[in-house]
Specification:
This protein is of the alpha+beta class and 414 residues long. The protein has helices at 18-21, 77-85, 89-96, 103-113, 115-120, 134-143, 149-163, 181-184, 189-195, 201-214, 248-257, 265-274, 286-296, 308-322, 326-337, 339-360, 365-394, 402-413; strands at 2-3, 7-10, 31-33, 36-41, 44-50, 54-61, 166-170, 173-176. Strands 1, 2, 3, 4, 5 and 6 form a six-stranded antiparallel beta sheet that branches. The chain has a two-stranded antiparallel ribbon with strand order 7-8. Helix 14 (308-322) crosses helix 15.
Length: 414
């Protein structure tokens, strides 16, 4: 592997919080070791970490991309030098993490029109919608059907390790990129995926790959993208006027995705939002439906259950509040409502309280306050870790049928 030196970009936690953005159910291939997140992405292993003022990034490339071939004369030195210098990692970081929009201004804009957002969102600053490849988003959210973050991540890891190209290692850990639709369109894949524990999702992944490879022209999926959010390196163009149900291009993309195997309205909206750049896409799962009922007066009259009409009404309501980035704003509230992140916030407040109380009593750090605070932090961090795992194990995918929710509610009342 050829690994570049760490580089940095000025970036405060209010503009980007990696720990929240990379673990809130958008992407399922990032691994965190100590304070560093890593993922095989665009032909390299990309590593990210941050502190209060900067985002740090590092790229590792396969030696095969930069070493001379055998015999050495087969690859001119000038060509090798060109490969070494042609590093677009900074552009990739900007693109993938969607660093262009001023997030502070967006939060202010959303807060100005929504008291609920204003109340909850400031505690969860730095949540960005990633600009993932459409194919990765599609695969990840097909795997999300009746699933949770831990198991989705395990499935994506199996998919990559069995079918994706190996890019290299960090330590002893291998990093494979995502396999292409052509690889998954092999007739043997469905049975193999079932053996790997994918269940009925194996059929959906195989058949979707076949549809993309043989039922559409090359580039069809990327052609559904929002032209205001193109793939990296392409020119930005206008996407049309915003309507209550979203721009025309979003509605077309959503409808075409529904023709794929394993793609319902929620998965289609997840792909539109997180893979195709349509910010007005609002995925409505049972969790978001609960938020809509509790905070936005849904759940009565004609919208008493999560039907197709209610699904559309929730999306329209959020779009009327937050405009063409409604899906982004809704994802902030979704994250703020997850118990794991709430517990982490409570822990931070509790630790700060311990420090303040110790100082107010005049206790010296060396004698009393430092041991008390350190013990408290250790206990709380253990609790946070356990509860985050519990949250992921319990949190159902964003596509549990509404009838199941209704039955669960009735059981709770009796």
């Amino acid at each position: 592997m050829r690994t570049n030196a760490w580089r940095k970009l000025p970036m405060g936690l209010t503009e980007l919080c990696l720990d929240t953005t990379l673990r809130c159910g958008q992407s399922f291939r990032w691994r965190k070791v100590e304070d560093t997140w890593s993922c095989a992405l665009h032909g390299r292993i990309l590593s990210l970490r941050q502190d209060a003022t900067h985002l740090y990034y590092q790229a590792s490339f396969s030696e095969r991309l930069v070493e001379p071939l055998t015999p050495p004369s087969a690859t001119p030195a000038s060509k090798i030098d060109s490969l070494l210098e042609d590093d677009d990692t900074e552009a990739l970081v900007h693109h993938y993490l969607n660093l262009g929009p001023d997030l502070t201004k967006l939060y202010e804009q959303w807060s100005s029109v929504d008291a609920n957002f204003k109340k909850k969102a400031p505690r969860f600053a730095g949540v960005r919608i990633l600009k993932q490849d459409a194919w990765e988003a599609l695969v990840g959210f097909i795997c999300s059907s009746n699933n949770n973050i831990i198991r989705i991540s395990q499935m994506m890891e199996k998919l990559c390790s069995h079918y994706g190209p190996l890019l290299g290692y960090i330590g002893t850990t291998p990093y494979h990129d995502l396999p292409s639709p052509v690889i998954l369109a092999d007739p043997k894949v469905e049975g193999q995926l079932r053996q790997l524990g994918f269940g009925y999702r194996a059929k959906y992944l195989y058949q979707t790959a076949v549809q993309i490879c043989h039922g559409h022209d090359e580039g069809w999926l990327d052609n559904l993208r929002n032209p205001e959010s193109p793939i990296m390196g392409q020119k930005i163009t206008a996407a049309g006027e915003m309507q209550p149900g979203g721009r025309a291009g979003y509605r077309v993309a959503h409808e075409e995705l529904l023709a794929l195997q394993g793609v319902g309205p929620k998965v289609a909206d997840c792909v539109c939002l997180m893979g195709l750049g349509w910010g007005e896409a609002v995925p409505v799962d049972t969790h978001v439906w609960q938020i809509a009922q509790r905070d936005y007066k849904f759940g009565k009259g004609k919208h008493s259950s999560l039907t197709k009409a209610t699904y559309d009404a929730v999306g329209d309501r959020f779009r009327s509040l937050w405009g063409k980035e409604a899906g982004w704003a809704h994802s902030v509230l979704f994250t703020a409502d997850l118990r794991a992140f709430s517990e982490r916030l409570s822990a931070k407040i509790e630790v700060d309280t311990v420090k303040v109380e110790a100082e107010s009593l005049g206790l010296k750090a060396a004698a009393t306050s430092a041991p008390v605070t350190e013990t408290k932090i250790e206990v709380l961090e253990t609790k946070i870790k356990r509860e985050f795992v519990e949250e992921e194990e319990e949190e159902q995918d964003r596509s549990v049928p509404s009838k199941t929710v209704s039955r669960a509610k009735r059981r709770k009342k009796t």
